[in-house]
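name: query_chain
kind: protein
chains: 1
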Amino acid sequence: MTIRALAESTGADVLAYIPSPPRGVWYLGPFPLRAYAICIIIGIVAAIWLGEKRWVARGGESGAVLDIAMFAVPLGLIGGRLYHVATDWEKYFGPHRKADAHWWAIWQGGLGIWGAVLLGAFGAWIGCRHYRIPLPAFGDAIAPGVLLAQAIGRLGNYFNQELFGRETTLPWGLEIFDRFDANGGSDPMNGVSNGVVVHVVQPTFLYELLWNLLGVAILLYVDRKFRIGHGRLFALYVAIYCFGRFFVELMRDDEATHIAGLRVNTFTSAIVFVCAVAYFLLATKGRETPAQVRAGAERPWPWQFGALRAYGAAVATEPAIPGTDAAAKESADEKSGAGESTDKTESADEAESESADEPVPADDAEPADKAKAAEEPEKVEVAKKSDTADKADSKSDS
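structure:
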């Protein structure tokens, strides 16, 4: 017996299902404040924050994630909208399109994560090329943050009453309300509900949110445990997301384009999943060193196996980066060496000073000094003989 059935049988006013928010838009004067946009912005901020911490921990320069986000975020939003329009083109260009449905009106809802990741990755590639940062290592650093942003963004779908599943009697079913504008017309996106439940559906937004949070935990654990690199953690993120999204798509019942009776996103999930797993298995193993993620360093692509091995060997001989354990060890070694050389120099100076003060024994004198000492008595003797001769001459003269 479900909680709803129990409540009905007892007549008790028990909350059995998850209620949808009565509205998803608030107005500050003429300006709309949309919960969907707020959730996206919070998700982007969370992704940048987590990505920045992880990038700096890997040896990257502080501020690089925010710099590259200036390229990736705008293109990601454009890509998400283009994917939505391409897969639901009948809403905007078909014979039964709505008069107020505009393909460029992003505030009306509609962002496809596949296009957002694809074009956002292209923007990140542009930023990495500009700052000379390795894209695969950058992708590994931001992967958990991107999945966290997707989880937060799913709350926006909750406020919009969209992306829900088929009707259900499960106790965690989601209540869907009709919403109306100020004139009493139906307005699911911008209106306010009257509290009347029209459907109880599978909360697929919640399933995907929880799956994404679990994926974030898995990515953080795998990265800490196995220290994988060269874009393989990003590939694992894509595979995790696609695996869960495949089954979520099978439960959804909202309007979407179908191919062979299946939603188009079901095919996208399967194809991208296979590609991500292939990259994870075939990409270069190991992890980039701090020197390899340093901005401005020339490096080969992940699939250039021989060049990567040669580059790794060359990097091993480079000076350590300040702030790392290797740099600290190198600094300690330098200080130790400098201390030893200073002690040796002081000892040599002291010995030289002592030898200058002590008299040098004759046996230890240099040969030149011995010769000089031998010449001194001979000069004295010659001088004495010269004086005697001079005195004799002087007597004879007198």
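note: Residues 5-14, 338-342, 355-365, 391-398 have pLDDT under 50 and may be disordered.
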